[in-house]
Specification:
There is one protein chain. By secondary structure, the protein is α/β, with parallel strands linked by helices. It has 14 helices and 15 strands. The protein is 39% helix and 17% strand.
Length: 392
Amino acid sequence: MQPSELRVALFSGNYNYVRDGANQALNRLVGYLQRQGAQVRIYSPRTDKPAFASVGKVVNIPSVPFPGRGEYRLPLLISPHARTDLKKFAPNMVHVASPEFVSHRAVTIARARGVPVVASVHTRFETYPRYYGLTFLEPAVAAILRRFYRRCDAIFAPSESMAQLLREQRMNYDVGIWSRGVDHEVFTPTRRSMDWRRALGIHDNDVVVGFLGRLVMEKGLDVFSDTIDRLRRRGIAHRVLIVGEGPARAWFEQRLPDAIFTGQQTGTDLGRALASMDILFNPSVTETFGNVTLEAMAVGLPVVAARATGSESLVDDGVSGRLIAPGGVEAFADSLATYIGDDAMRRAAGHAGATAAQRYTWDAVNQTLLDAYLRIAEHRRSGGKPPKGPLG
């Protein structure tokens, strides 16, 4: 089978109405597939004010604001219009990018029509309840995810550490890697700007500990704040720079009144903001890859991160940064203090990270997924059987 024979239906709960690493990766994938001659149709909720222009034709999926997190949309159903469009498009590959109601239905329709299905895993949904006092729900969420992913022909994780976790959780028997790339023209050490730092009130000899990401509790904002408190109590001089936006911003600003908040940055402005930090601190355990970790490495920053899926596949502990047990506030503070106090160590770790980041390019990682599409489609076309479902 050739790429030009592919007709891919992509189902996503968020393709472009809120900017995040997952949907930007999906947009890059669609652009790459189209350049290789494949046809792609996206089925996703749409809004009047999207966060960025989408790539490809998007068919609207009816949705409502997600309870308690109104910036996100909850897809409700595959409407008659979308169902008619899907039938006319006649995909020979279905890609589901989020395990919500509509994607469950899309898998059912695909299986009924004999169309192979792949799923990409973008976040650890089973960990979310712990950030809202609902830890007891984690086993139930994991069971629902297992039922969903086992109905797919294959699933793809963005890192080997996440892929191994999915295997251990028995989510599917065919677990592949669809990694992430980095735009080396945007994320480069040359974007560092002392003038930009000075405009924010940062002195040239200040060491800046940075955070980059959506300001939501599941990004580990509590651990970040507690760690900064430890540094201050120890009398370790530093500045804190927060780049990002989200519903927890007011909480974060109150928790870190001396931090500098820039709001959301994009494009070369984001590259400048990240390169103008001195250390990236990423305590999150919910990412399956950690785009911000890779971007920080690309601009030459040492990264202090939680030893969790994603980051542990990127950060070479003790070389390009430090990996600390999740929630280990004292250990996080120790590592940050070491980098703050040792310019040579900070530069060496940043250089190691920038060197490692060079091998991550978008075209290479998207070609890997395209090859997997073709392998799975050819297997099914030659008489291969679909997965049996939840019981394997």
